[in-house]
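Hi V.,

You were right to ask for the full record rather than a summary. Here it is.
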Amino acid sequence: MSTTVAIERIGFIGLGVMGSGQASNVTRRSGLPVSVFDMSADAVDRLVEVGAERAASVAEVAARSDVIFLSLPGGPQVEAVVLGEDGVLAHARAGAVIVDLSTIPVEVAERVGAAAIERGAHFIDAPVARTRQAAIDGTLSITAGGDPAAFARVEPLLQTMASDVILCGPNGAGALIKLVNNLVVFETVVALSEALTLIRRTGLVDPELAWTALGQGSAASFTLENHGRKALLPDVHGEGIFPAEYMRKDIGYALDLAEHLGVTLPSATLAHDLLGRTIDAGYGKAYHTAVVKVIEGEV
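Predicted structure:
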């Protein structure tokens, strides 16, 4: 059985596109010492500049911390870092809380959560939504799954990174909501890409004006304003944001879950295929809005 201990030190593993901003915010806002680790020395250097402490390994972070945050590419990496022979659980303190900010399969969240309990710790799946800029600004949305008491301990820390934090249920619940969030977002990106293609091909309405009109009607949405105005309209799909490869991974997690449940998701299946074609066309590292290139027939 896990014990409750005071939070005196924080650890953060994974300082990539999203993790760097999150780690910076928890370092600057929590008032607690934060040990960080990443395979990139440059990423660690940038966090040290804002007050974090450099750790030499995952094991060192785990051994020194009462709360360990993870921001990793996906399920395989989370399992390796947490459950590995020299991973977090092998070195974690009794009563430690492991908070995974990554997007992972529901079954991985459930499995890692059970393993943490067996080792006297807690696991919270707490994937983040919104943009890289939101990670920098501390205005992410976090959907969490895990033990309510463990969540209550780390909620103030999550609030250093996010403006919206909600406990959705037990382990796996946070992961589930993030997966369906990404389903809705990307399927909306596909719909907007189709709309924009029609608008451009007809030449009847200026695309900027069309977007304003859509925003005044029932098509208004965060995706219309963010993905649409910032990427689709200017046709700019930069790297280092949320690439097509990552979105395809997340849609794949949702499809795997659907198969396990005996459910068919036609739109998600199409979205997964379109992302595959986007990646094959050389846009795997580009923002997932590059799917418009496939829809427009440019590739």
